[in-house]
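hey so i finally got around to running both of the ones u sent me last week. sorry it took forever, my laptop kept dying halfway thru and i had to restart like 3 times lol. anyway pasting them below in the order u listed, first the sequence line then the structure token line for each. didnt double check formatting much so if smth looks off just lmk and ill redo it

first one:
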Amino acid sequence: MEYIIIGLLICSIILEIINLIQKKDNNDMTERLGHFETNITKEIGEFKYEFSSNLRKDFENLNELIVNKLNYINDKVNERLEDNFQKSNKTFNNILERLSKIDEAQKKIDGLSTEIVSLQSVLTDKKTRGIFGEVNLNYILTNIFGEKTGIYDLQHKLSNGFIADAILYAPAPLGTICIDSKFPLENYQKMTDKTISKEEREMATKQFKLDVKKHIEAISSKYIVPGQTAKEAIMFLPAEAIFAEINAYHPDLLQEAYNKKVWITSPTTLMSTLTTISMILKNMERDKYAKVIHEELNKLSLDFDRYRERWDKLSRSIDTVTKDVKDINITTEKITKRFNSINSVDVKQIENKDKN
């Protein structure tokens, strides 16, 4: 804006000079130039003062604007810093809380490890292992079939005097199946213990296989009774690891069990087998009720046929009675008309006619 004003002043000076030249009056031109110089000097001074004042005001406004912006930015930065500090503090507190939970979980894990070690020490006793297997077997049977359903029986005594841990009354062609729990843990732990020598592990492996074969032979001879049980029996291993070891590395034991008609199961495979049997039993029960319903529907159909026949007979009888009623009604009307005509006859008039 200021540069435009200066430009206009210069243009006016030039125009004034041109006018003076055109008039060719030197004295007058000198006087005019003097006045013009004075005016120019005055205007330039005023312009400088005004320009300086405006410039100072602009700088003051700009400075105030910059200060306000800086204060606003400072407030925003403080606000962001405070917000981030709160979030960081919250995150830090969460981390401390998580660390405390992790520490607590670690303590529980340590306690659980101690309990597992104590459990292993308890399971070193054969009788305790037997009870452990029976409890697991009972738990699985109860979860699959429920309690006191009559589908299975615990600690069932056979006719040969031996007592099976459980007996399952499965449908044909399976029949009555004995289930006995076995837990060959001691030699299995030795054969999988990497801290002992290879020779000791090999000896433990041989002994483990002998233990399993003895269990297979015992189940086959005790719990397969001709005429009372099925031709097969189930050996329940309450440890998945032992079951996996036999299936993965000892096919000869599987062949031995197959030859002796003994099924080797773990908790998982036994649950699958029993679940399948439970579904078969439910389907058989459903089919039985469906057969009963079908028979009752057939009987209902026969009864309905009799009902329809009797209803038709009754309908025909009703039609006959209705026709008879109509005939009787017609006869009644005729008789009524006769009586009416008789009643309307004048007896005295007839007597007078007879006298005449």
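and the second one:
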Amino acid sequence: MPKPKYKLSPYLKNGLYWKVIETIAFPIYTKADCRKVCELFKLKGLPVLSESTLYRLFLIDGNDNVPYLQTLDILAKFCNYKDWHSLEKHLNELSTFEWSFGKVPTKNTNTISLLTSCIHHNELKSVYNFSEQFDESLELEKKGLLGEEFYKALKTNPNKNDLFFKNFSKLPIVRESFFEYMADPTFKIPNYEIGLKYYLLGIKPEQSTKSLQDFIFGNCLLFRYYYLNNDKSESKKLGTKLYETYNFSSKDLSPIHIFPKIRYLAYKLFYLNVIGSSLEIEKYEVWLLNYISKIIQKLTLEEKRIVLYTIADAFVNNVSTKMDMHNQLKLIFSDVLNTLPAFVSEASLKDALPYLNRNATKLLKI
């Protein structure tokens, strides 16, 4: 009896692709990436699919490839679902949620959602009323879909986003789904700097753990932006605020999420560079690697990936950091690098960064 095949809709095919990306934590761009995914199937004790199968399924645009149902079951199990039916059901639930803000599945890439159309025409009252009904109990993936739509709408907004940032920056679902989950460290969104300042308005780190986390998150993104754009005045002013006025210790930051915490610790290298303290830079690099070596066993794989990316980003963008430090960092995180395509661990940290990047906007290529 021939094996049953299953024709995937573009939506389901795209959803399956991103589920695999979430599982492996690196983008699939090439056949070499497909080969690494095949290796990871073995580690989960699953039947191994060929790299050609994955390449045809995910990387050949507009192809009419119809995969075997057995292939889809293996991929679903790899993504921690019981079978393809379970994953398909979940993806369809997410599709229904996208319908709620007017996103219609279509091959026409110029079609925009109702939410995006309202933002582009400054018809924000309806968007506010729609967003206000969601709280922290909303499923994480749905928060991600909503944040992604906000990101796309604001990135292409002809009105430069001032009104949106002013009126939405305190709305909890917008803060979490857009500002935090879809953080934009490259500042591609028009007036994103203004948006972060609205996000930070009135935030006092001593008020609560959440306030501390928001304070660190927003200010660290701004500080990195000023530093990389050689804005010496703003980077020195904000760096002084972060590392002298407050000067949080690793213990002070222990209650907050690993991403803002490690950003704060890693970006201190930028501040030491701004104030011209070369001797302190070397001492701090040694301290940072020693600190990471002590806590690494307590971190999950995803947390390790976040730490590796953030420190690698700081090392690459701190011109005084020597190659020896790069190599030590790679050695500390050798187990993480082993889950990535072989050429990533062999590459320089600079060339490896695209595969290490843990920002959702990078993984989603938006």
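quick thing i noticed on the 2nd:
Residues 10-91 form one domain.
anyway thats it, ttyl
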